[in-house]
Amino acid sequence: MEKSNGLRVVLFPLPLQGCINPMIQLAKILHSRGFSITVIHTRFNAPKASNHPLFTFIQIPDGLSETETQTHNTKLLLTLLNRNCESPVRDCLTTLLQSADSETEEDKQRISCLIDDSGWIFTQPLAQSLNLPRFVLNTFKVSFFRNHFVLPQLRREMYLLSQDSEQEDLVEEFPPLRKKDLLRILGVETELLDQYLAMMLETTKASSGLIFMSCEELEQDSLRQAREDFKVPIFTIGPSHIHFPASSSSLLSPDETSISWLDKQEDKSVIYVSFGSIVTISESDLMEIAWGLRNSNQPFLWVVRVGLVAHGTEPIEAIPEELIERLNEKGKIVKWAPQQEVLKHRAIGGFLTHNGWNSTVESICEGVPMICLPFRWDQLLNARFVSEVWMVGIHLEGRIERNEIERAIRRLFLETEGEAIRERMKLLKDKVGMSVKQNGSAYRSLEHLIDYISSF
Ligand code: UDP
């Protein structure tokens, strides 16, 4: 850590793996630049404080019952958390600000700002009432964040009624999303979400700035448009894990035998398969993926996390013993992998992914081409960018069928199409890599953010 700059930053991540990782990475970056760090967190999905002895962790009660913590409905979870956490966070911030004031001149440490997720919708008015600048950390791609506020309007315009023949058409208001993607996004969401989005938009516009784990090279026009829309400073500080590679913020213990197994495989021969921390699939989808992987004859490392199959805690038990034996001939199944290390490994040649933004960026940073199997929300947009804009992956178009999966793996690993994809991925990786190097766009944006936070 650089010498302390006398400033403290308070961070408050949403308790989801895809939000905790970037928040802790950002905390590490700021700490290395002289800031002291306090992380306020819920009891549910609490980050492992012992992995970060230099940070102060404060746990607040989240009021979630045991059943509520098991829900697969993220919107419901966010609603409950926003309702339950407001008062504890208010108390916590008030105490922190008071004790910062009462410190002696020598130990005095000013709290410069609060950084939290766009999904917390009560924190902006709260921070404002305490005179504390608030920055919004976004775990989405800029183009998704900016455009997803148009979803309520698109619902009102009855996109649900579009004709089959229009399914492949682009959604003008939300490019490069196709109408069929939009139907999947709108299909499961309710009016509750419309109110939530309206609040999120209002509180984002009132914030002191927006931070994205992205860079100009990945965002094309959307950054300029986002600056016009939100009228607050926007910082695209690049893929944060590049600064501190080992992920110490994992909520589950990564199976380290993944790496020793990869060590025994040939260069660029393995397909890594993971759908992140939230997605759930059906038992029959699980079987189709298992058969697709086996039939492809390509070595694979497959993350089958507890809870991946919606009803059943141990999804692996749903796979018949005989098939497990056949899977083990060619691949390895783990409950959770050290993903960033895995993607870096020389043996990895492709990533069958749900296209969560973290996974997508981690894959680009390591130059690993993707097979896209998005399920929900921003994943559908990220997958379109991967397959159609950057053209560094193959889209499964939602077909979770053994033949389709086998075919996609073969196309990527064995056919000339795969070679072209790998070439383009190498170029994209280099561009993004340059962005975080000295004087690259993300590097400059991070410097700007640090200067800006220091000015409060
Ligand atoms: N991850 C991991 N091990 C796994 C699967 C995922 O460490 O076996 C990490 C991954 O590196 C990423 C995060 O979990 O940083 C998942 O975030 P993402 O945005 O891709 O998906 P989400 O879980 O939010 O759907």
From TrEMBL:
GO MF annotations, alphabetized: UDP-glucosyltransferase activity
InterPro entries, sorted: UDP_glucos_trans (IPR002213)
SUPFAM superfamilies: UDP-Glycosyltransferase/glycogen phosphorylase (SSF53756)
Keywords, in A-Z order: Glycosyltransferase, Transferase
Coiled-coil residue windows: none
One Pfam family this sequence matches: UDPGT
Transferase recorded as keyword: yes
CDD domains according to UniProt: GT1_Gtf-like (cd03784)
Family listed: Belongs to the UDP-glycosyltransferase family.
PANTHER family per the UniProt record, alphabetical: GLUCOSYL/GLUCURONOSYL TRANSFERASES, UDP-GLYCOSYLTRANSFERASE 76C3-RELATED
Name the UniProt record assigns to this protein: UDP-glycosyltransferase 76C4
